[in-house]
């Protein structure tokens, strides 16, 4: 049982890592538009974030699974969509929208004086984000980002409903094959697998939290001296 479950782990990790990376990029784009308040584009970004945070994840997966073939079918690539690809797309859209609502408050939490000082020095928006506001926002938003990763790990288990052969789907196949004789043991092993994944994610986030804490003062953990960024 355990070797068979572990054989499905690479696919589970692949779906998770693709959703992490693609979702992070989507969150950066959405957050940039929402912070800069570009007409029409910012409203579309708000609508996307609202969709990702309001619609249940399993429904977002169904939308990706049944909606993507219709969209790509217009370009003659209907057979290109697989349950695994639909899972990656659905979870990436979910993670990007959820993570955007972590990034935006973290960016806005940076003191207004820091933004004004950067503007007075003639910094572009990119320079201000990467040298002034970004490092401070990263320190503020990192715990929320850690939670978003854990939520994503939990929601990867839902991809079985659209046919992706992840560890959860493999577990159900094992139980059906054994006529549900080993339900408790199978779910127990699944619980251990997901707990280990969440623990690893928490340790990585915690490591970066400790690293970032070295660059912030004890009394003002979210402020970085402007002179150090010039």
Order of helices and strands: HHHHHHHHH
Mean pLDDT: 87
Number of helices: 9
Shape: flat
Strand content: under 5%
Terminal Cα span: 58 Å
Q: Approximately how much helix is present in the residues?
A: over 70%
**Rg of Cα set:** 21 Å
Main sheet attributes: strand count, strand direction, barrel closure: none
Q: Could you tell me the number of beta strands?
A: 0
Low-confidence stretches: 217-230
Question: Which structural class do you get from the secondary structure elements?
Answer: mainly alpha
Describe the structure.
- Helix 3 (41-54) packs across helix 5 and helix 5 crosses helix 7.
- The radius of gyration is 21 Å and the shape is flat.
- Mean pLDDT is 87; it is low at 217-230.
- The chain has helices at 2-7, 9-36, 41-54, 57-73, 83-108, 112-120, 125-156, 167-177, 183-213.
- It is mainly alpha-helical and 230 residues long.
Task: Please outline what is shown here.
This protein has helices at 2-7, 9-36, 41-54, 57-73, 83-108, 112-120, 125-156, 167-177, 183-213. It is mainly alpha-helical.
Topology:
Elements: H1 2-7, H2 9-36, H3 41-54, H4 57-73, H5 83-108, H6 112-120, H7 125-156, H8 167-177, H9 183-213
Helix pairs in contact: 2-3, 2-5, 2-7, 3-5, 4-5, 5-7, 7-9, 8-9
Features:
230 residues, flat
């Amino acid at each position: 049982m355990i070797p068979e479950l572990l054989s499905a782990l690479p696919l589970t990790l692949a779906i998770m890592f693709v959703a992490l990376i693609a979702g992070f990029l989507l969150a950066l784009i959405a957050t940039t538009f929402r912070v800069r308040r570009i007409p029409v584009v910012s409203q579309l970004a708000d609508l996307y974030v609202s969709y990702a945070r309001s619609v249940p994840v399993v429904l977002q997966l169904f939308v990706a699974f049944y909606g993507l073939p219709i969209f790509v079918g217009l370009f003659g690539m209907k057979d290109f969509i697989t349950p695994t690809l639909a899972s990656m797309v659905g979870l990436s859209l979910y993670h990007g929208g959820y993570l955007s609502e972590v990034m935006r408050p973290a960016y806005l939490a940076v003191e207004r004086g820091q933004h004004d000082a950067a503007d007075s020095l003639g910094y572009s928006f990119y320079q201000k984000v990467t040298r002034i506001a970004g490092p401070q926002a990263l320190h503020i938003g990192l715990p929320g980002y850690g939670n978003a990763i854990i939520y994503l790990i939990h929601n990867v288990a839902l991809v079985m409903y659209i046919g992706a052969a992840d560890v959860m789907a493999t577990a159900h196949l094992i139980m059906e094959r054994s006529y549900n004789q080993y339900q408790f043991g199978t779910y127990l092993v699944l619980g251990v697998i997901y707990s280990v994944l969440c623990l690893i994610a928490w340790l990585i986030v915690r490591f970066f939290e400790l690293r970032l804490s070295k660059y912030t003062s004890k009394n003002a953990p979210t402020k970085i001296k402007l002179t150090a960024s010039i």
